[in-house]
Design a protein that fits this description.
Helix content is 31%, strand content 21%. It has 320 residues and is an alpha/beta fold. The protein folds into 2 domains: 256 residues, Alpha-Beta Barrel (TIM Barrel); 57 residues, 2-Layer Sandwich (Alpha-Beta Plaits). About 5% of the residues have low confidence.
């Protein structure tokens, strides 16, 4: 029985594939997108999140509970030394006001499967199922495959939401057990992709082309981030590439919104980027793209973007 690192299991999800779904969020991702909705899913380890407004004045329960002395209180705030913290969760368990939350815990496949099976009646009545999201599910391939096998055995529709940044053999192994892939594309510009996510998009594009040859149900999801990938050249390049893959059944254009900003504040300062690495600890701003605190795209701009994909015969949805 394999184990994996999970930071949430969301019931009654309606934006992660068809019907009513159970979404399992794997913790750990090789990309560091500054607009990430789930920054707590980026690092492959449990992390403490501090919700400062809930912290009780004068309370020191969390400090006393921490054997590593990784928590201190300054005149301004509660601070966590993230180099000392081992993510044990003792502080979160002790906090009387739920100001501290632990993002990520080890779960075995049987425990996760049981949570999925609890929702089977909703899956069946709505044409839904389970979506494995993150983070990046393909970073935990053995755990993912065991869960996919359990879903196949019980007749539960299974979707995998992936960035596509993984060894192709892992994608191939998952493809045989997956009913639907939700495949994320950021930009066709490799230099821009590297600068803003920390990795090249070469493997992502190669894997998508390969997946289109081995699987017949792919939905493309593209976040529309003003100043990053919303210009005509970027959109047209993405539309041409996606249109070249017959297995793509739908394109979802997702307007940027700052959902993840407050979570980034709860996680505290970014960890130091390892020397020579292109991927920082948590997401940081792209130096040449000041829109990394971007505004939301206007509805008219989203419709114009959608029409560029529709012009090539693609089925396009906006929002979600």
């Amino acid at each position: 029985m394999s184990q994996g690192l999970v930071f949430d299991v969301k019931k009654y999800a309606i934006h992660d594939g068809p019907g009513i779904r159970t979404t399992v969020f794997f913790k750990g991702c090789p990309l560091r997108c500054p607009w990430c909705h789930n920054p707590e899913g980026q690092l492959a380890k449990p992390e403490v999140m501090v919700k400062a407004p809930r912290c009780l004045p004068g309370c020191r329960v969390c400090i006393k509970s921490c054997e590593l002395k990784a928590i201190t209180r300054t005149p301004k705030a509660l601070e966590v030394n993230r180099y000392e913290c081992n993510g044990c969760g003792a502080c979160a368990d002790a906090c009387p006001s739920q100001a501290i939350e632990l993002a990520g815990r080890r779960m075995d496949a049987a425990e996760v499967s049981a949570k999925i099976f609890q929702d089977a009646i909703f899956h069946e009545s709505s044409g839904g199922g389970v979506t494995f999201s993150g983070g990046e599910p393909l970073m935990q391939p053995e755990f993912l495959l065991e869960l996919l096998r359990a879903c196949r055995l019980h007749g539960i529709h299974a979707a995998v939401d992936t960035s596509g940044y993984a060894p192709q053999e892992q994608l191939r192994a998952a493809a045989g057990l997956t009913d639907l892939f939700l495949y994320d594309l950021k930009t066709m510009d490799d230099a821009r992709h590297l600068e803003c996510t920390g990795v090249s998009n070469a493997a992502i594009l190669d894997n998508l082309a390969a997946l289109g040859r081995m699987h017949q149900n792919i939905w493309i999801r593209i976040p529309i981030v003003p100043g990053f990938n919303d210009d005509a050249e970027q959109l047209d390049a993405a539309a041409r590439f996606v249109a070249s893959i017959p297995a793509v059944r739908q394109v979802s254009l997702l307007p940027y919104h700052p959902t993840g900003n407050h979570k980034s504040r709860w996680l505290g300062p970014c960890e130091v980027k390892p020397q020579g690495s292109t991927v920082p600890g948590h997401a940081s701003l792209c130096p040449s793209h000041p829109s990394q605190a971007p505004t939301r795209p206007f509805p008219a701009d989203m419709e114009e973007a959608a029409n560029r994909f529709r012009a090539l015969g693609l089925n396009v949805q906006t929002g979600g």
